[in-house]
Amino acid sequence: MNIEDFIRDIPDFPKPGILFKDITPLLANHKALVRCADQLAQCYSGDVKIDKVIGIEARGFILGGMLAERLEAGFIPVRKKGKLPYEVRSKSYGLEYGTDTLEIHADAIKEGDNILIHDDVLATGGTAKAVSDLVKELGGVVVQFNFIMELGFLHGRDKLDAPIASLLEY
Ligand code: AMP
């Protein structure tokens, strides 16, 4: 079984010129879903114990949660502005047009916590970089960035300053 066979390409979504990588066929297939989570967990083989996995809203929540279970770590949601109920730290970052803001609960990370950041797709890297900045502001250590896939032609990894693992590269 090949994870790649369960990623569906949707041209011109959400706007013309974007080839959207749709993971819903992967999520819908039990064997593919478990295989993907197992492989993501195997991407981390460091000596340091991961304390918490961060999943980025919304597609990063699903495999991020499964990854946390496999690494025996806690899970932290990073969400779009205005969704988290408690005190937050925020980070705005540039998009192609305008900016977006991500938030994390102010007490989500303890000083020195070892953090793995998970999302479905690494594209330009702006999202993952913003999350990494939030982790550092709260005193955490980014041990790995972990993605199902990476769009290599967008050079997102150049923005990131910790080891990067991705199962697929396009
Ligand atoms: P970026 O900040 O450019 O690295 O974008 C990463 C975020 O946007 C991730 O949360 C992805 O889910 C989403 N994303 C960006 N490009 C795509 C794409 N071609 N297909 C699916 N999701 C994407």
pLDDT averaged over residues: 97
Distance between the terminal alpha carbons, to the nearest Å? 19 Å
Q: Biggest β-sheet: count, sense, barrel?
A: 7 strands, mixed
Q: What molecules are bound to this protein?
A: adenosine monophosphate
The CATH first-level class comes to Alpha Beta
Radius of gyration: 15 Å
Shape: globular
Query: What sequence of helices (H) and strands (E) makes up the elements?
Result: EEHHEHEEEEHEE
Total domains = 1
* Sequence stretches where pLDDT stays below 50 over 5 or more residues: none
Count of individual beta strands? 9
SS summary, helix count? 4
Beta-strand content estimate: 25-35%
Instruction: Indicate the CATH topology.
Output: Rossmann fold
Taking strands numbered 1, 2, ... along the chain, how are they ordered across the largest sheet?
5-6-4-3-7-8-9
Helix content: 10-25%
Alpha-beta content class: alpha/beta
CATH architecture verdict: 3-Layer(aba) Sandwich
Task: Tell me what the structure shows.
It is a single chain. This protein is an alpha/beta fold and 170 residues long. It has one domain: Rossmann fold. Helices cover 24% and strands 35% of the residues. It contains four helices and nine strands, in the order ββααβαββββαββ. It has helices at 24-28, 30-42, 60-70, 126-137, and strands at 8-11, 19-22, 52-56, 74-80, 88-94, 99-105, 114-122, 141-150, 164-169. The strands form two sheets. Strands 5-6-4-3-7-8-9 form a seven-stranded mixed sheet, sandwiched between helices. Strands 1-2 form a two-stranded antiparallel sheet. β3, α3 and β4 (74-80) form a beta-alpha-beta unit. The longest helix is centred in the N-terminal third of the chain and has 13 residues, at 30-42. 34% of the residues are buried. Bound molecules: adenosine monophosphate. Adenosine monophosphate binds next to β2, β7 and α4.
